[in-house]
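Notes from the pairing session

We agreed to fold both candidates in a single pass and log them together. This is the raw record for the first candidate, unedited. Please don't reformat it; downstream parsing expects exactly this layout.

Candidate A
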Amino acid sequence: MTANHDSQARAAMNSENEFRHPLDVRFFEVDSLGVVFNMWYLGWCDEAMSAFMESIGYGYKALRAQGYDAVLRKAELEWLDSLQAFQQAEVAVRVDHVGTTSFRLRYDIERVPGASQTGGEPTLCAQVAITYVCVEIDGRKRARLPLGLRAALVQDHT
């Protein structure tokens, strides 16, 4: 099992109605200063979004089978602290807003103590908010959120 598949197997909803997606910072994700290059934060959010959507029954395969897709409309990222190669992190995913044709997810990217470390609190490294718009696959026109997806997102939001 690869590290990525292992991380996906460990992703789960916690007691605070928050989906958490673990990741290991890989060497190629750091820049010349030895910290994560900024583009990777959005890539990690995309991975976490895919795992979260799968967990509520609306992964890309299921959504596309209904003739829809969710596309990025707007992304906001605030960097707070560095992550370095070989550190462990988690992306906490929360539903922030559910509209008629769109939804917004919030992501907290935290450095977490590694398996070899004991104790210690997670450190918030970045906060991201991404708005996704539902579109029809044919024609790429904006569409209402499928009722089942909307219900799953609202349920997670409460």
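Candidate B (folded immediately after A)
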Amino acid sequence: MTSFLHCALYLAATGIGAFFLGRLLPKTWFRGDAFPYRCYPFEQKLFRVLHIKDWQSRVPDMSRILPGLMPDKKLTAETFSDLPRMIQETCVAEMIHVLLSLTGLGCLVIWQGIGGVLVTAVYILLGNLPFILIQRYNRPRLQRLLALQRRKQERKCQDAHTDTKLQYRRGA
């Protein structure tokens, strides 16, 4: 077997293992507003420079490949309840791609020399880094949407409470 094939099999095995790990880990372990998943203001400038908005929909997406396992990304009035899970899923995906980047360094051991360096660089820079960036780009947007949704819900509850008070005062 060639070193390239060994690397490909190794990367496929770690990818499959990481996918199952991501599905098995409790989602409650992941908070988008806490380290290391919290996004920082400087990242927004980086995302604009990299034009993530323009290319993110062109990369492979597990929610399209396995729609039953991931929440739908098309938000409707009915799917707004999925926002907390979607935020957690961005954290899980980011963690899995960071983990895959680290395990990808194993190709340097499997295929020593320039071939291993090239495979590792392509795997990390094209196979994982874009997905990490996409998760970090989308998470703050989902968090803002969730905050907006919660504020609307609070106002709706306050308005309903005020209406009830007015009804009882009129009847008294």
